[in-house]
Each structure stands twice: as C-alpha cells, then as structure tokens.
C-alpha cells in the first residue's frame, strides 16, 4: 500500500519524506489556501522534495480552461499529477490528459458509478472521500469495498486512492479492503506509529538497560 500525505505544508512534507515512508503528496484548493502560498510556487517546491506523484488540482470547471490550467501545472515538474473533479468536464479532461501520457487523479468521488466512469476515462487514481461520506451517515468504507470489487472485475489499472481519511482506523480498514493508496493528514500519518504499550515497553527496556551500566559500541 502506498502512503501519500494530504497537505501543502512544506515543512510537514519534508519531515515525513525524510522517514523514507512517503510515496507521494495530494493537495487541493483548500490545502493551498491553508498554506497561504501561491499554488505554482508551493507545488514546485513539493515536487522537488518528493519523488512520487504530487497531485495539484485544477480550479476551472469547464473543459478547455481545465486543460489550460493542466498544461501550466504539468510544466512545473515531471511528477505533477493533475487532479480534476468528478464532473463530465473533469472526466473529459481526464481522458484527454491520460491519453497524452499524463497522470490524473479524479477527485471528489462519492459513488461506485463515478469511480467506474473515472476508470473508463483512464484515471491513474480515483479519490473516494471516506470521511465526508461518514459525515453524512453513509459508511465511506463500503464505497472503497465496492470500487475494489468493480475494478477487480474488469482489471482496471486505476488505483484506489482512499481520501478524506480522518482516523488511524480509516487507514487500517482501507488496507484490509485493499485500497492501493491512502492519502493521510500529517497528524494521522504520525499517529499510525503510536501505541501506549510501545511507549511503556520502551520505558521499561531503557530503565533495565541503565541498570546494566553498559553501552553499545
Ligand atoms: O484528499 C481529500 C481530502 O483532503 C479531503 O479531506 O478531511 O477535507 O474531507 P477532508
């Protein structure tokens, strides 16, 4: 399973990238707003830090304008992945971009039929939003499961990128179902490593080690 971080905060990205555990980054207009930085500048900087795909979202809603913005974003770096919304114009842009060899992330997916269309349009990634479905009382994980079945039925290459991840349990459930990628906020990503028994066990080991008076090396 690949791990992407869902942020445009360059210092968080640098810190996580240094662990060697990061496979990519996803951004969106809200995350760019949070960063307080110009989209082209911050996206370029992220692309220089991370080798894997960096999703940068178009903000146009009409096909021709989406394509114009996609060309500008693509110029930034080899590893830019163009993010388009799951609308008919977005799907048309996805088809055109993927046919010209570009990586495309189709975002704002809330149904299995939407995911089916994205795969037919040649999407590299489909981004179903788990947390936002949960917010409405619908089980977001059920959608991941449905998409997994449909993509496997037809051997689609499109990767399921579980998005709008809010908890460590979301990550575990997505992994159990077989999502290809999770994009996770930095705080959730870091808390995946945490367990109170790990802390307690380490404390005890270190206390006993101190009693030995030894040193390694
Ligand atoms: O990758 C999409 C994600 O950023 C949306 O997350 O928490 O705003 O629903 P959220």
- Structurally, how many domains make up the residues? 1
Helix-and-strand structural type: alpha/beta
Count of DSSP H/I helices = 11
- Indicate the low-confidence ranges by residue numbers: none
**Quantity of strands, as a count:** 8
Biggest sheet features: 8 strands, parallel, barrel
Strand order of the largest sheet: 1-2-3-4-5-6-7-8
Q: Nearest-angstrom radius of gyration?
A: 19 Å
Instruction: Tell me the helix content.
Output: 40-55%
Distance between the termini: 37 Å
Q: Which CATH top level class fits?
A: Alpha Beta
**Roughly what is the average pLDDT, rounded to an integer?**
98
The bound ligands are: SN-glycerol-3-phosphate
The second-level CATH architecture is Alpha-Beta Barrel
By CATH, the superfamily comes out as Aldolase class I
Give me the strand/helix succession: EHEHHEHEHEHEHHEHEHH
Q: What amount of the residues lies in strands?
A: 15-25%
Account of the 3D structure:
- The chain is an alpha/beta fold and 217 residues long.
- The protein has one domain: TIM Barrel.
- It has an eight-stranded parallel barrel, surrounded by six helices.
- Helix 6 links the parallel strand 5 and strand 6.
- 38% of the residues are buried.
- The mean pLDDT is 98.
